[in-house]
Amino acid sequence: MSGVDEMVAQGPARLPAGSVRVEPYAVIGHNGIIEEGRSEVDEAPVTGAVVPVLKQPGDRVLTGSRNGAGALAVMPESAEPNPPVHSESVIPATDPIGPFLSVTCRRIACIDLAVMAAAAVWFVLHPEHASVDGAALILLGLISPALLLVWPLQKWALRAWLGLHRLHCPDLDRLQDLLPVRSIVFGRRGTLSQGALRVVSLQPGPDVTPPELVVASLSAYQNIEDSWGRALMAFGISHRVHLRPAEELKVEAGAGISALVGDKRVIVGRPEWLTRHGIEIAGLDEAVAEYRRLGRELLFAGLAGTEPRFLGVFALADPPRTGTNLLIRTCKQSRLETVMVGDVHDTATATLAGLTGVGKLVAEQESGNFEDATTLAVARASDIALLQRYDNAVALGQPALQAMPQVPFGIGRDDTRHVLDFIMLAQLAARRLPLGFTLVWLTGWPLVAEGFGLIGFTPLLRLACLGGGVIIAVVQSQLLRLVDSLANDEHED
Predict the structure, then answer these.
(1) Band of the pLDDT at 4, cuts 50, 70, 90?
(2) Is the pLDDT of residue 170 over 80?
(3) Domain 3-76 is of which CATH architecture?
(4) Annotated domain spans of the chain
(5) How far apart, in Å, do the first and last CA atoms of the chain sit?
(6) Which residue among 51, 70, 130, 297 is the one 20 to 30 A from 19 at the CA level?
(7) Which CATH number is correct for 182-194+321-391, 3.40.1190.20, 3.40.50.1000, 2.120.10.30, 3.40.50.300?
(8) Residue 225: per-residue pLDDT
(9) Residue 450 has pLDDT above 80, yes or no
(10) Is 0.70 topped by the overall pTM?
(11) How many CB atoms lie within 10 A of CB 164?
(12) pLDDT tier at 321 (50, 70, 90 boundaries)?
């Protein structure tokens, strides 16, 4: 029986009460404690750790991690010990007026009170015009029933629009909190970048051909599941590299690997790893210096033995995600400051900031300077702590939403470009809701004029005035259909 088959066989035959079965290679959907089973779990999407962690009964697993070859029985953790970061985000708003209409309603209420006072004086001075029907028409005109439909219909339209674009916002009243936002803080690990190394360039050594470098290095590394191995294998698959069998594999964590490919001992890893095997790195000083200037992570390859030989170098990087440059450019056009939290002394981080066009790079300890109502935090599950520190936060990707369901805003798809959709919705509601509410209110003024005896209406015309307000409220809620999302939905992940 193979090693993989043995691990699968160790899965739980029968689930303990209350536990959830996690199939091999499946994404873990809940934080919990392993009741039965044993498997290596890849926590890279959550913690950023490169090496999978062996989990067994009693160990804790995290939402968004990927299970290994063994099935697990996981007892989900209760949500009680972790109080929601934003308690108001999970309590539906009961205010029928809505946060965007409070100022408009106060102004209209003042006008209504003034008109009612004027009506009282008018009826005292002109008792011949005083009647119950007139007073009723004035009240009906000032407080039209259609006014109560504006915000509920708008909420319904907003929820439909958010659902269409797979955006998450439990409490729509929180959109108003985004109106004063002036800066956006992005997490470093996987938020603006792919979150995984990629081979971006390679340089063969003297008298070495590119195929010789690639085939030897990838063949030696084909059985290693670390960040380097994943990057090399992805490069090999995309370029259809035919690998050779590797034997006598030796690994030293953080240094490199050695393997026997054919009759040659191939060494791949850090420069000091090659030096320990008697391989001298020479002939690529300018290329190596340029790679390091660009913040690339370097893997060197060579052949050990009686006649050591330097094969070349691979340059790896964590490239920006698709749409990141568009997002940053749109932020700048909207006069929003962009900030990335990361190691300011790390060349790769500085390079990423330059490639994406982020306006400012700050260290973790300095990010607290931006924790106020004018800042919106954006991060993925790998940087969940950043989301927890900010009142206004957007969780990117389904793993982040599962790990932090109480976050006020979230994006179900793996697309950074939709971050500004929430700010766009807030601005849209702030502009159009007061205007629509005012137009609905104005449709009742002909009834007010009739109540004062200035004009006369038939019952059909009165009904038309009241129905006009309802029509405006309905049309106002449908205006979102004319608004496209920031990202092009044809390029969904």
Answers:
(1) very low
(2) yes
(3) Distorted Sandwich (2.70)
(4) 3-76, 99-155+423-491, 182-194+321-391, 198-317
(5) 38
(6) 51
(7) 3.40.50.1000
(8) 80
(9) yes
(10) no
(11) 12
(12) confident
**447 touches 457 (CB < 8 A):** yes
- Burial per residue of 307-321, b for 16 or more beta-carbon CB atoms within 10 angstroms, e otherwise: eebbbbbbbbbbebb
Torsions phi, psi for 259 (to 5 deg): -155, 155
Q: What is the mean pLDDT of residues 218-241?
A: 88
User: HSE-up of 45 (CA within 13 Å, CB side)?
Assistant: 22
Listed range (128-132, 238-242, 252-256) with the worst mean pLDDT: 128-132
CATH 3.40.1110.10, applies to 198-317: yes
Reply yes or no on whether the pLDDT at 137 is more than 70: yes
- pLDDT value at residue 103: 87
Kindly indicate the confidence band of residue 48, based on its pLDDT and cuts at 50, 70 and 90.
Answer: low
Least confident of 70-74, 300-304, 322-326, 414-418: 414-418
With contact defined as beta carbons under 8 Å apart, do 299 and 268 qualify? Answer: yes
Structure tokens at 278: 């008697």
182-194+321-391 and 198-317 agree in CATH topology:
no
| Spatial distance between the Cα atoms of 158 and 176, rounded to a whole number of angstroms | 13
Angle ∠(398,400,402) on CA atoms, nearest 5: 70
Long-range contacts of 83-90 (CB under 8 A, 24+ apart): 84/406, 85/387, 85/388, 85/404, 85/406, 85/407, 86/174, 86/391, 86/406, 86/407, 86/408, 87/406, 88/171, 88/174, 89/170, 89/171, 89/174, 89/406, 89/407, 89/408, 90/170, 90/171, 90/406
pLDDT at 9 over 60: no
β-strand pairing of 393-396 with 409-411: parallel
Contact 440, 147 (CB under 8 A): yes
